Amino acid sequence: MERPNAWKTYNKTELKKVEDTARAYRQFLDAGKTERECVEYAVDALEKAGYVSLEKAVAAGKKFKAGDKVYLNKMGKAILTFLIGKRTMADGMNIVGAHIDSPRLDLKQNPLYEDGGFALADTHYYGGIKKYQWVARELALHGVAVKKDGTKVQICIGEKDDDPVVGVSDLLIHLSQEQMKKNLGEAISGEDLDIILGGKPLKDTEKEPVKAQLLQILKEMYGIEEEDLISAEIEAVPAGKARDFGLDRSMVMGYGHDDRVCAFAELKAILDLKTTPEYTCCGMLVDKEEIGSVGATGMQSNYLENAVAEILELQGAYSELNVRRTLRNSRMLSCDVSAGFDPLYASAFEKKNTAWLGRGVCFNKFTGSRGKSGSNDANAEFIAKLRRIMDENKVCWQTAELGRVDLGGGGTIAYICALYGMEVIDSGVAVLNMHAPMEIISKADLYESYKAYKAFMLDA
Length: 460
Ligand code: MN
Ligand code: MN
Known about the structure:
Shape: globular
Number of helices: 11
Bound molecules: manganese (II) ion
Radius of gyration: 23 Å
């Protein structure tokens, strides 16, 4: 029952494809450190591949037929793609969905203050983080500030070689006797994750001169006032580029593999669909997964069914029943990362049912925690079908659970899509250091996931 290592199956041509895919992926990671940046990247690539925006298609009263390509940009933070298939939509779609938000430190709405000769920004962390991992390291600021007149200012600082970086300080070891006695979860509190932004006072200024200097810099660089930060979304993320990891270069280390590794594999699979598929292929890159899939750009919002309704309308086939049939009859891979076996923490895993780096795309029948609570628990019939698709297309795959029973758990978007009554299973890439500022994946797993998603979408 042990699954083969993907690396052992590659010939020279395939090794080159693995490497090319990883190189493009590293560029995607560097370009997309926020959900907004990932959507911009996707829109650009999709439009080059002939995808048109759904809003424009609706406004033009376009008639959709097999082979047409359309995307929906949801508020710049989530994106859905549809490649119309030969069969009626009501026969269901082949859906792949991943999320493009990652854990980070978000600036509060009123973030700036001055203390101890520093200008600092208060943050509220986003998603599940081990707080001690985010101090004493270089951070970059990415995001937008929107002025009262609606002008949107793009912010990105800390990524170019000559850019400054920012970061959160940690107490020196020499004075840490008390801190070192605290447990890992309490040693650094959420309110301690404040980012140092500057340390130089503005001349001839009495009140908060360092903060005043900083505000002047923000004004010069971005034309924004302090009050504009109220309507801003600025994310502090690890600065720097993704890198090859390991002396054999078999892995990639970078920020946001969860879940941009699946997002990239999915997007590449979609862009590489060169023939008109039997079933309509739907790709989803969604936001807010890390905080419960909430909000208008999270999976719990109803943009999928709204988009399906619009597309059916443009095919002259809209009815409430057809919307329901399309969703109910669909099949979906909920593409998200899985916990890779880590020999340093072997006791957290059960070896027969864990994901291994290098053994290909993972299928997780259930995630959840404590008696499968909250898990999607995919149907055996659907898994049998996936075994066939993967084997027919020579995809290396494995099955996994998230760690040993009762140790923890986690959710994905699978259970939300299952509400429509469709077949859905979690499927993705094994990750080391999940949710740490620097995560690690195997290049082979990225490549096998790409192959898996493509084969799944083309399955007739
Ligand atoms: Mn995830
Ligand atoms: Mn996650």
